[in-house]
Amino acid sequence: MITILSKFINRIFKDRIKQIVIIQFILLIPLLIICIQSFTTNSINYFYNGLFQIIFALINILNGVEQFILKKNVLSILFFILGIFFVYLSIQSFNLDILRK
């Protein structure tokens, strides 16, 4: 059982920057909580939707920074663009939340 866990951890951290991976896992916890919270409510909550998208955008931007440091330029540009896109979507979600009230 320990070998399976050690293989999983080695695969996660292989050829990656450990500090960025740890920050991404820390951001993954509230992302999952917000996801569960937003799916269990009956109405659409644009505030939770916006928070979800901001955290997802931060994870993508961190991936872009990591890929840029590791000299994978195509992936870094892709993750930066994806992160900026989700920041734009989250701003739209927050605007819908303000307009709804």
What's the topology here?
Layout: H1 2-13, H2 18-40, H3 46-69, H4 73-100
Helix pairs in contact: 2-3, 3-4
Please provide a written account of the structure:
By secondary structure, this protein is mainly alpha-helical. 86% of the residues lie in helices and 0% in strands. The chain has four helices and no strands.
Instruction: Tell me the quaternary state.
Output: single chain
Average pLDDT works out at 85
> What's the SSE pattern?
HHHH
Work out the number of β strands.
Answer: 0
Unreliable residue stretches: none
Strand-residue fraction? under 5%
Domain count: 1
Main beta-sheet annotation: none
Question: Helical percent range?
Answer: over 70%
Specify the overall morphology: flat
Q: Alpha-carbon distance between the termini?
A: 52 Å
Q: What class, by secondary structure content? A: mainly alpha
Short descriptors:
single chain, mainly alpha, 101 residues, 4 helices
Question: Could you give a short description of this structure?
Answer:
This protein is an all-alpha fold and 101 residues long.
